[in-house]
Amino acid sequence: SKDGPNGARTMIIFQEPKSVAGTRFLTMDNASGGTDQWIFLPELGKTRRISGSEGSGSFMGTDMSYDDIASADRDAGEDTHTLLREEALSGSPCYVIESRPRDASYQYSRMVSWIDKGNKVTLKIELYNKKGDLAKVMESSDIRDTQGRLTPMQTKMTTVAAGTFTTIYVEKLQYDAKLSDGIFTIKFLETGRP
Asked: Would you call 174 helix, strand, or coil by DSSP?
């Protein structure tokens, strides 16, 4: 990922398992404050734009949605925030903050976050659907200092109603790498070359 003229840009490239190897996913913040998303599926040999109505759909069969992936860089100004309380989570004193999206089309009606008071790392987020029911729970763990930045190396997303979960394990992470702007283009999405 890299900051761009309108905000964050992220390219995800799947290498394993074999059934999805070569799949590439591009998300870019746009000038209007929204996010544009495209996916390249090698078995079809073409790129498809993800429409706004597909945002809540499962991302590559995981418990994360397309919007969840895009929300990794969600700007604080997109929501209104209220401090609900302070409490410990797994022994860490936390601020518990409710965030309500300003944009009614966002897939969640509200999010409740547990933010470590000492290091400001988000440890847990409860995500509520439009009906107000708890839909998903995201939990971050294995917090490590990486190049002077505290970073969760494990992220678990649980879909409450289904009782399923997906865990992402970060094996290697580098900040401030020099990345070509050509990586964040439709051309790279289709060819794998900047």
From this structure: coil
Rounded CA gap, 28 and 106, in Å?
Answer: 16
Q: Which positions ≥6 away from 135 have C-beta within 8 Å?
A: 108, 127, 128, 129, 159, 160, 161
78 in helix, strand or coil?
helix
Whether the per-residue pLDDT at 115 is higher than 80: the answer is yes
* Residue 149 CB partners (closer than 8 Å, separation 6+): 175
Residue 134: strand pairing partners: 128
- How open is the CA angle 104-166-126, to the nearest 5 degrees? 40
For residue range 8-54, list pLDDT tens digits in order. Answer: 888 888 888 888 888 999 988 888 877 888 999 888 888 989 887 67
What are the tokens at 61?
Answer: 């069969």
Tokens of 172: 């290697």
The 10s digit of each residue's pLDDT in 155-168 is 999 999 999 999 99
Instruction: With a cut of 90, say whether residue 55 has pLDDT above it.
Output: no
Torsional sign, CA 51, 52, 53, 59: positive
Between CA 166 and CA 11 the distance in angstroms is: 20
Rama region for 47: left / alpha / beta (φ>0; ψ in -120 to 50; rest): beta
78: tokens are 């997109």
Q: What is the DSSP string of 106-134?
A: SS-SEEEEEEETTT--EEEEEEE-TTS-E
